[in-house]
Structures are given as structure tokens and as C-alpha cells.
Amino acid sequence: MLEIKDLYKSYNKKFILKNININVKKNSSLALIGESGAGKTTLSKLILNIEKPTKGQINIREKKVNVVFQDYRSSVNPTFNIDEILKEPFWSTNIKFDKKELGNLLQIFNLPNTILDKYPHQLSGGQLQRVCILRAILSKPDFLILDEAFNALDIYTKAKIVSFLKEQKDLTLFLITHDLEIAVTLCEDIKILYKGDIIESLKSNSLKNVKHPYTKMLIDSIMKLEK
Ligand SMILES: Nc1ncnc2c1ncn2[C@@H]1O[C@H](COP(=O)(O)OP(=O)(O)OP(=O)(O)O)[C@@H](O)[C@H]1O
Ligand SMILES: [Mg+2]
Q1: In the prediction, which pLDDT does 158 show?
Q2: Which of 10, 25, 87, 103 would suit a FRET pair with 197, their CA atoms being 20 to 30 Å apart?
Q3: Which residue CA neighbors atom 17 of ligand 1 most closely?
Q4: Residue numbers of the domain that contains 215
């Protein structure tokens, strides 16, 4: 579904991404983990064709690609109410807006129906982030990019949405996160991005035998939390 070949991206002659090679199969799930500034959002912008590669190739087969941006607040039109924000993606497609499905999803996402009449500035960060995830799901994408899409959510809501996403069988997921625990819960494959380089590729069910000190540090920090 997604093939990234020998990809490089530089800004002002500084390489932000180096020699990136990624293959994502249909209906699989991949998590990209890395510290702040590693180049994760830059990679998602290249996948979405918002930015152009300096070198290399990105081939994406699916047309229905949705995204939840890390900067979700600026991804909604402040003059639209939530009802309009949720319907906006349907204006330019022939996919039918499903009112019943919206009702189901509002429940799963712990959002009351009354939210539909409100404007973005009247919502909490976590409520608006949930609206953005809901909007990305509602038009039934084949490929979904989530860039730190859970960072404003409380643990209970996060768990509910993560388990909902896990149940979606016809969805290819590209998760960007700092959070190894979410990555392991939601994704089969994990890639570690470190200073623009993919330094490790792991299966989420076998986190042993990691090689890079950064990955070891990530895994150790989970163990410490569990104590
Ligand atoms: N348009 C741009 N022009 C110049 N430099 C940029 C641009 N966009 C990103 N960068 C730089 O690229 C590097 C990677 O940024 P990026 O947003 O991809 O990091 P990230 O891994 O998503 O970090 P975070 O976890 O904090 O979101 C940073 O040093 C950033 O300053
Ligand atoms: Mg980012």
C-alpha cells in the first residue's frame, strides 16, 4: 500500500530524513517512534505530498488517505461548528454521510450530541482531538495517518479509541508517536526513527534483542513505569 524507497529530505542543506525505506502492506499497522525532532512529522508530510522529497520515492496506492495532524487545532476551520467540521470531508467526494454511523462513533468517542452545535474554541483540547480522530474515521479511509493523535486524551478515552481502532480490519494504520506502549498495543510493526535515520525495525510481539541504545532506553522506560 505504501512504499518508500531511499528517501531523503533536507531543509536549508540539513538532512532531516536520510535513506528511509519503508513498506506498509494493506491492512497492516506500522508505528513510527522517535524523539522530538527526529523527523516523524516531516515524513508524514512527504507521504501526504504536502512536502516534496529531496531524493527518493514514495508510492502510495490508496486514494482514501486520511490524517489526524499533530497540530490538530489548526486542522479545523474555526468558523465552522463541529457538525460542519465533520461533514466537510464529504463535500468533495461522492461518499455518503452516514448519520447513524456518526451517532455510534460519538458514543464510542465519549462525545455528547450537543457538541455538534459548538465551535472549536468552545471545546477542550481532548474533545477537539477526538473530533479530529472521528472526522478521519467517518469517511472510512483505507489508510490512516495518526500523528501524536492521542496526546490530549485521558487514559480511559485513549484506551477506548485505541481498542476501537484495533478492531478496524480494513484499515492500514501509520501511527506516529513517542509512546512505545501505544505503538505496541496498536501496531504489528515498529520502526525507530533517530535523528532522521531508521535505526531499528521491530515486531511489537518481540521487543527483545533490540540493538540500538535509544531503543533499549525506550523499552527500559516502559519497564520502569510498570514497576
Ligand atoms: N519546513 C521546515 N523548514 C525547516 N526545518 C524544518 C521544517 N519542518 C521541520 N523542520 C525541522 O526538521 C526537524 C524534524 O521536525 P519534525 O517536525 O519532523 O519532528 P518530529 O519527529 O515530528 O518531532 P515531534 O515529536 O516534536 O513532533 C526539526 O529539527 C525541525 O526543526
Ligand atoms: Mg511531530
Answers
A1: 93
A2: 25
A3: 41
A4: 1-63+143-149+174-180+188-227
